[in-house]
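Could you please consider the sequence and fold following this short note?
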Amino acid sequence: MAELKTARNDASVNAFLDQVADPGKRSDCDEIVKVMRSATGEPPRMWGSSIVGFGSYHYKYASGREGDWMLCGFSPRKQSLSIYIMSGFAKFDKLMKKLGKHSTGKSCLYVKSLDDIDRKVLRELVQKSVDDMRARYPDPS
């Protein structure tokens, strides 16, 4: 079975974030780090070459495929900030309606700037998603 390209590694989060040229986006990244660190109690780690992730869980599908993935994370992409809400958005309709200007993918929240959204709602969304993932994937240790 092939290894995931986006695996947790020991690359420097600070060095990665220092490459974010736009000062506003860099400031947003610093704020997201604080939100996610608070939600997980975990330090930021690089996942692949462009995602900052926090914590992890172990999954195993019926097919036998298994692996580890982050509880939450983000990536400062060129067009927007990609914020990974691993539990998805189905349970969070009320929060999503209050969030502000954004778009979504399956587990991806896309925002141009944190100024476009309600930061308190983002903190609540991240926390609820982390709590949900920990309930679904309890630490076996």
